[in-house]
Write a structure and sequence with these properties.
The complex is a heterodimer of chains A (365) and B (249). Chain A is built from nine helices and 21 strands. By secondary structure, chain A is α+β, with helices and mostly antiparallel strands. Chain A folds into two domains: 217 residues, P-loop containing nucleotide triphosphate hydrolases (Rossmann fold, 3-Layer(aba) Sandwich); 131 residues, RNA polymerase II/Efflux pump adaptor protein, barrel-sandwich hybrid domain (OB fold (Dihydrolipoamide Acetyltransferase, E2P), Beta Barrel), CATH 2.40.50.100. In chain A, strand 16 and strand 17 form a beta hairpin. In chain A, helix 2 crosses helix 3 and helix 4 packs parallel to helix 5. Chain A is globular. The C terminus of chain A is likely disordered. Chain B has one domain: MetI-like fold, CATH 1.10.3720.10. Chain B has 13 helices and no strands. The chains are: A alpha+beta (365), B mainly alpha (249). Chains A and B meet through strand 6 and helix 2 of A and helix 8 and helix 9 of B.
C-alpha cells in the first residue's frame, strides 16, 4: 500500500483548480512537482495539508483517509517560499513552536540538535527579520523537520536564494530528509532541484498532472510536447524505418536517427533527446553515426551554453560546456556534427504513420 | 509640498487659537466646575468602555472579513462601513428609531439596556460611530498578515483558535493599538450621534462635546473653550501614547 495516495482530486478556486489529480508515493520518496505558474501546484499542497477541502476525490496518508481531517491532526509539515517565520518569535522559539505542542520535555535539546544539523545554532536568539534569505530558509526547514512530520511539503523553498546558497541549501535538504527518511513533495521551477533531489517527478499544467513517474523517466521520456518543452527535452516527430531487435531507425524530416527502443516499422513516433546528451563535434569519428547540423544560435548561460542547431528542417537544443564552445570555437552559421548515441534517444509516443518527408541516413564517418 | 505646508500651518494656527484666546485663570476655574468634572468623567468612562467594546467587536469582524468567504460578504462589508459616510446626526436618528419604541427597544429596556436619553445611550452612540473605523483598520491589519504563517501554525499542531491567539493576535498588535487609539478618539469626540440618541441633558448625559455645544449656545465662551482645550489635550495624549507604545512594540 502506498504511503501517500491521492485519488481523483478535484478543487475549483476560480483562478486556480485541480482537475482529477492522481498521485502515489512510497515512504521516503522525494517528489518534485514542476509546471508553469497557475498550474495548481500550490493548491495541491494546500489540499494535502488540509487548508482547502477538495470538491471531489480522496487523500490517504499511511493507510488512513485524511481528506477531511483538520490540518493540525494530519502531521504534515510545510515550508513556503516566503518561509512564513513568526516575526515576534526568536529563531529558537520558531523551531520550538511545533515541538511545544507535541512534547513537554527535551524541547531545548531537540531544537539545538536540529539547529546544529542545519548550521543555524549560532542564530537561535535572533529574530527572523535580522536573518538573510538562506538563514530564514534553514530556520523554516528546521521548524518543519523538528516535529518529524510524516510528510513534508515544500513550495519553492529555494527560489528566493542566490545560486550559491541554493546549491548549499539543496545539500542540506538532502542530508536532512535522508536522515529522517521523510517523504517530500517539493514544488519547484528549477530543473536542478529535480536533477539533484527528486526520485519522482510530476509535471502540472492547467490543473492537471500531465506526467508523473520516476524523475529520470519524466526528463528522458516526456509524455507529450508540453512536458518535453517544460523539461527542456527535444521532441521530434518521425516514422520507424527499420527495426533491429530492440532498437529502431526512425526517419525525421530530412534525416534518420537510431533509437534504443524498438517500434513497429511504419509507425509514426515521437523521439525524445535530452539536450545534454547531444555532443557537438567539428570532425565526426570514423566509427560513429553523426548528424550534419548548422548552428543557429549560441546562448551563454551561467552553467553552460545553449545552442540551437538545425538538421534539415528540424531544430534541436543542445547544451554544451562553456569550455567546449570555446575550444571548438562555435559560432552561429557554423556547419558542425551532432553526435547522438542511440542509448540517449527514446521513443515516447507512437501512432499510425501520417506523413514521411524525404530523409537521409545518418552520416557514417 | 507647498500646499501641505499651507494646510499644516493653518491647522497649527487653528489649534493655537484655541489656546491663545482664553484667560487661563478662567480655564483653570472652569476645569474644576461641577459641570466640567461631570462631563470629563462621563466622557472618559464612556469612551474607554465604548472603545473596549469597539475593539472586542472589530477584532472578529475584521478577521472574518479578511479571512473568510461567505455569501453577501460585499454587502455585509458595505453595511458595516456605511456609518463612516453617514452624518452623525442621521446615524443617531437611526439608532433612536431602532432603540426607541420598537420590539427590540422594548426588549432591551426590559433587560436593563435602555439606550434612549440615558448614559448607556452615550456608550451605544459612541460604539456605533467608532465601530466602522476600527473594523476597517482591523481588516487591513489582518489582510497585511500573511495567512501562510497561520497555515504553518495549523500544520504544526495548533487549532484555529490557538493559531489566532499565538500567531495572528501578536502579529496584529500594532493594528489593534492603532484601532484602539482611533476608536477612543472617535468615541470621546462623538457629538451628533450622542446628542440624538442620549440627548444633551445637563449633567446627565453631558459629555465634553455636548458641554462645548451647550455652553456656546448659552454664550458661555469660557466653558466652551475649556471643553475644547480638554478635548484637544485628551486627543494629543492618546496620539502620544500610541506613538510611544508603537515604538516600544
Amino acid at each position: 500500500m502506498s504511503f501517500l495516495r491521492i485519488e481523483d482530486l478535484h478543487l475549483n478556486l476560480g483562478e486556480f483548480r485541480l482537475d482529477g489529480i492522481d498521485l502515489e508515493l512510497e515512504k521516503g520518496d522525494y517528489l518534485c512537482i514542476i509546471g508553469p505558474t497557475g498550474a495548481g501546484k500550490t493548491i495541491l499542497l494546500e489540499s494535502v495539508i488540509g487548508f482547502w477541502a477538495p470538491d471531489r476525490g480522496r487523500i490517504f496518508l499511511d493507510g488512513t483517509e485524511i481528506t477531511h481531517a483538520r490540518p493540525e491532526r494530519r502531521h504534515i509539515g510545510i515550508v513556503y517560499q516566503s518561509y512564513a517565520l513568526l516575526p515576534h518569535f526568536t529563531v529558537f522559539q520558531n523551531i520550538a513552536y511545533g515541538l511545544k505542542k507535541r512534547q513537554k520535555s527535551g524541547i531545548e535539546s531537540a531544537v539545538r540538535q536540529m539547529a546544529e544539523s542545519l548550521n543555524i545554532d549560532h542564530l537561535l536568539q535572533r529574530k527572523p527579520a535580522t536573518l538573510s534569505g538562506g538563514e530564514q530558509q534553514r530556520v523554516a526547514l528546521a521548524r518543519a523537520l523538528a516535529v518529524k512530520p510524516a510528510l513534508l511539503l515544500m513550495d519553492e523553498p529555494f527560489s528566493a536564494l542566490d545560486p550559491r546558497t541554493r546549491h548549499r541549501a539543496r545539500e542540506l535538504m538532502r542530508k536532512a530528509v535522508q536522515g529522517q527518511e521523510t517523504t517530500v513533495i517539493h514544488i519547484t521551477h528549477d530543473l536542478d532541484d529535480v536533477w539533484t533531489l527528486a526520485d519522482k517527478a510530476a509535471v502540472f499544467h492547467d490543473g492537471r498532472c500531465r506526467q508523473f513517474g520516476p524523475a529520470d523517466e519524466v526528463l528522458d521520456r516526456p509524455a507529450d510536447p508540453f512536458v518535453a518543452d517544460f523539461v527542456g527535452t527535444n521532441l521530434l516527430e518521425g516514422a520507424v524505418l527499420e527495426r533491429n531487435g530492440d532498437r529502431s531507425l526512425v526517419g525525421v524530416n530530412g534525416f534518420a536517427i537510431y533509437s534504443r527502443d524498438g517500434a513497429e516499422v511504419g509507425k509514426s513516433v515521437q523521439l525524445a533527446i535530452r539536450p545534454e546528451n547531444i555532443r557537438i563535434i567539428r570532425t565526426p569519428p570514423a566509427d560513429s553515426d553523426c548528424l550534419a547540423v548548422t548552428i543557429e544560435s549560441v546562448a551563454r548561460e551561467a552553467k553552460a551554453c545553449v545552442l540551437q542547431v538545425r538538421a534539415s528542417e528540424t531544430c534541436l537544443s543542445v547544451v554544451a560546456a562553456h569550455q567546449t564552445v570555446q575550444r571548438l570555437d562555435l559560432h552561429p552559421g557554423d556547419q558542425v556534427y551532432a553526435r547522438i548515441e542511440k542509448e540517449n534517444v527514446c521513443i515516447v509516443g507512437s501512432g499510425e504513420i501520417t506523413q514521411l518527408s524525404g530523409f537521409m541516413l545518418p552520416r557514417k564517418g | 509640498m507647498t500646499l501641505s505646508l499651507v494646510v499644516t500651518v493653518l491647522l497649527v494656527l487653528a489649534m493655537g487659537s484655541l489656546l491663545a484666546v482664553p484667560d487661563f485663570a478662567d480655564v483653570w476655574e472652569n476645569l474644576w466646575s461641577d459641570e466640567m468634572r461631570f462631563s470629563l468623567r462621563l466622557s472618559l468612562i464612556s469612551a474607554f468602555l465604548s472603545a473596549a467594546l469597539v475593539i472586542s467587536f472589530s477584532l472578529p469582524i475584521g478577521y472574518t472579513l479578511s479571512r473568510f468567504s461567505f455569501p453577501f460578504k460585499g454587502l455585509v462589508k458595505a453595511i458595516i462601513d456605511l456609518p463612516v459616510a453617514f452624518p452623525e446626526l442621521v446615524l443617531g436618528l437611526c439608532l433612536l428609531l431602532l432603540f426607541g419604541k420598537t420590539v427590540l427597544g422594548d426588549w432591551l429596556a426590559a433587560v436593563g439596556l435602555n439606550f434612549v436619553f440615558t448614559q448607556k445611550g452615550v456608550v451605544a452612540a459612541q460604539f456605533f460611530t467608532a465601530l466602522p473605523y476600527a473594523s476597517r483598520i482591523m481588516k487591513s491589519t489582518f489582510d497585511y498578515i500573511d495567512p501562510k504563517t497561520e497555515f504553518v501554525s495549523r500544520s504544526l499542531g495548533y487549532s484555529m483558535f490557538e493559531t489566532f491567539w499565538h500567531v495572528t493576535l501578536p502579529m496584529a498588535r500594532n493594528g489593534i493599538l492603532a484601532a484602539s487609539v482611533i476608536a477612543f478618539a472617535r468615541c470621546i469626540g462623538t457629538f451628533g450621534t450622542v446628542l440624538i440618541l442620549a440627548g444633551g441633558s445637563y449633567m446627565k448625559t453631558e459629555v465634553l462635546p455636548t458641554t462645548l455645544y451647550l455652553n456656546i449656545s448659552y454664550g458661555n465662551m469660557g466653558m466652551a473653550l475649556t471643553s475644547g482645550i480638554v478635548l484637544m489635550v485628551v486627543s494629543f495624549v492618546a496620539i502620544y501614547v500610541f506613538e510611544k507604545t508603537e515604538a516600544a512594540l
